[in-house]
Design brief:
Length: 224
Amino acid sequence: MTTFVLASQSPARLGVLRNAGVEPVVRVSNVDEDAVAAALPEGTAPEIVVIELAKAKARDIAAAIAAEGNAAGEFADSVVVGCDSMLLVDGVLQGKPLTPEVARARWAEMAGRSADLLTGHCVLRVRDGEIVGEAAECSSTTVHFAKPEPEELDAYIASEEPLWVAGSFTLDGMGGWFVDRIDGDPSSVIGIGLPLVRRLLADVGVGIAQLWVASAQLRGDTAR
């Protein structure tokens, strides 16, 4: 049985996978995203930045479960999926704002405009502690933003939701009120692009059907 490991603490990514029939094992990486990005050569393309961040997260967890799996056997055959999302506005990548001031400044930039949400994905196939396959790619979805009224933006920022998400907005939460439309994959905007991950899984020899079977068994074990 192949174990699906999600290298992310994002509830949104977890929700997308569960709704799509996959019950992942969640492991949170200790990657310093700023340090990884800073170590890349100057002028690195935005798409490569998010891919490298996704790779760093997946590799960090692959290394962690290698030792854990050698002892427990749970991860003898597994796929580790790492993701990283950032919003590209006027050629500048934007991650999580973290503070109300930064969130407000970003919304001042993007309200009434469109921007590209880039999500790097990395899939690692791990057998007996060794990485035996790797596939990585970036998805890009254009998001067309509305113009929130001042009181709406005040309330949204006060909710703190935009402080902890890439680009200061969500599609599947309160921020969805301020997205007029998207051009591309909605699951990618939420944080993990299902069509792309399916292709990457196939590249490392794993099919969705076998993950559905494994997830059904895992849910059954959990229920007992």
